[in-house]
Amino acid sequence: MDFQLVVLVGGNSRNLTPFVSMVPVVNRLVLYYVLHQMEQSNLKNLVVLVEGKDTSFLVGGWISKIFTDGLHIVIVAVPKDIRAVKALTLQKNV
Questions:
Q1: Which listed site, 6, 51, 65, 94, has its alpha carbon 20 to 30 Å from 71?
Q2: What SS3 class is residue 32?
Q3: φ, ψ dihedrals at 22, nearest 5°
Q4: 21 within 8 A of 31, measured Cβ to Cβ
Q5: If DSSP codes are grouped into helix, strand and coil, which group holds residue 38?
Q6: 30-61 burial code (b ≥16 CB/10 A, e <16)
């Protein structure tokens, strides 16, 4: 069975703030630990939802520096004025 993991990163507004994956824990972002686990597993296809285009460029740049092989990651910028559930429904065609 083929799975695709969706990671909600969040952004600068309050709509996606429950997803605090950009918070550092032991000198690494929480997002690092999520992506590292995926790199070690069989789940290689990921969609990373990021709130806002500016933030998506920053997150995408960070990911491309840290995770160069082993994962197929698509960064999707979602509008700042939607909630997390709506962001998930928007990504279904990615």
A1: 51
A2: helix
A3: -100, 10
A4: yes
A5: helix
A6: ebbebbeebeeeeeeebbbbbbbeebbeebbe
pLDDT in tens, 17-57: 444 556 667 888 788 888 888 888 878 888 888 888 888 88
Amino acid residing at 1 = M
Residue among 38, 45, 33, 39 nearest 2 (CA): 45
Between CA 51 and CA 17 the distance in angstroms is 10
Tokens representing 7 are: 């990671």
| Lookup: tokens for 6 | 């969706």
What's the whole-model pTM score? 0.74
Amino acid at 37: Q
